[in-house]
Amino acid sequence: MIATPVVLTLGCVPSAFEGDAPDLEGRAVRLTLLHTSDIHSRIYEYSFDPSFTDETLGLADDAGPYGGLAEMAYILKRERKKAGRVLHFDSGDSFQGAIVFNEFRGEAEFRALSATGLDGAVIANHEFDAGAQNLANQAYGYAGFPLLAANYDFQDADLPWATELEDLAFPSVLYEVDGLRVGVIGLANLSSLNSLDEQLNSLGIKVVDIGEAIPREAANLRAAGADIVIGVSHMGLDDDKEIARDFPEIDLILGGHHHVALDPPLVVENEATGKQVVVCHSGAFAKFVGRLDIVVQDGQILSHDYTLFPVDNSLPKDPEVEGILNEYADELSWKYELGQVIGYAGEQLNRYGSNGGDSMLGNFAAEAMRSFPGVETEIALTNTLGIRADIPAGNITLDTLFNAMPFDNTITTMFLSGREVQELLDYVSARSSERGCSSQAQVAGISFVMNCDAQIAEGILVNGLPLDPAGTYELATNNYIAHGGSGFEVLERNTTQVDTGISIRDVVQSAIIQYQSLPQPGVAEEDGRITPVY
């Protein structure tokens, strides 16, 4: 089924077919919505041990390797053929997470997604990882679909890329699919771009409050004839639930950002109207494709049905997308020896702690940072989400390491007072309390009780000694949180920062080569340095 996107600023709504569109008044019609999100450059299949949740959702333990955009494209094109009226939306963060992004800066992701038939994608935080100008360049060159963001305004920014992104990022788009008019509002990420609350931020983005953006865009869409209004969101599950509850203009939400897959989707009652709003999240890292079928009559969603398709080794590859991806794979193979073995993991090295505290990979990375020649600080702290994947058991290759640590972060050193260390760990405790008391930082040279109930750090020891509030401690951290990323304001305002330029991934690679086999006693093991208290 052909869908025609119509940008509202064009002021017209052409039909998807020659002749008159069918009159749907009083008729119950079906619409299929295909949904992807948070692909994070996992455009090639990869190996990992599925979690219990993954397995519950259909990702079998013995069905690896998993993921890959050619495999996802097979599902997407197969389901399009099975459906009548159909649209495919992506909830953002297709960039960043594997070496293909480090090398090609999103070109491969946008080209391949375009070839899947994607109808629209919301702008997410990692789309800016190589800069706003890069996003504009990649979108102009390779995105065969509209970018969506009702709550970003670039119009007044005096920056080179602002005009380009203002032209590229539409607040809403109207699609006509065989007479059914589907309005879509893009709800871009706010929480992970720490500079957005600054009037003159480096991205040139003026934030538009969703309390203004959603009613305005929904009114425009309804005036143009929209039968239903969908929010395509990268605001996160909690915000999506609040939007479903508080905004009667939204009929359903396709969301992302928190890397969760929901099967069945959530159904949230809108407080103003009592209508049931479906909230779909289809997971991350190319592990799943979601299909939501709804029945619409006279602007009302009467029913819904959902299927979550696992992306595993049982799937063939779509030839068109595979051909695109092979171009980049050949160049990567020529430039890098991604299969080079740099060490061995006797068991899976986890990025999250088993009890929500310190983790195997977190401890290993933090220790490697503080002990690296030329750094050699007393303590280290890095954000847990800077480690994006577990390292599976078996040979550790360069490709495995890039999947686990895709960011090009460098080590920044600084001096903190004891009071600042307390403030820093209090912030970690508070931030972690909002995420199931799962520690949002990993440390070396520090042990503490992370009291998620009180949102404070207690019993802090630095290299075995009680924290001295009047003391001074040298910290090694990553340049992202040193600049205030993820809300680490206590680091951002520190004036003693020195960016060493030393790649954290290279430091971890050197440590793996040094030890060869992991874990070892006291190395890449959980040791209780972060003890969560609920």
Jot down its keywords.
534 residues; alpha/beta; 5'-nucleotidase,  domain 2; seven-stranded mixed sheet
Give a written overview of the molecule:
The chain is of the alpha/beta class and 534 residues long. It folds into two domains: 31-328, Purple Acid Phosphatase, chain A, domain 2, CATH 3.60.21; 339-533, 5'-Nucleotidase, C-terminal domain (5'-nucleotidase,  domain 2, Alpha-Beta Complex). It has 15 helices and 28 strands. The strands form six sheets. The chain has a seven-stranded mixed beta sheet with strand order 1-8-9-11-12-14-13, with helices on one face. A seven-stranded mixed beta sheet has the order 7-5-4-3-2-15-16. Helix 4 (107-115) runs parallel beside helix 5 (132-142), helix 5 (132-142) packs across helix 6 (162-168) and helix 10 (360-371) packs across helix 15. The model is unreliable at 7-19 (pLDDT under 50).
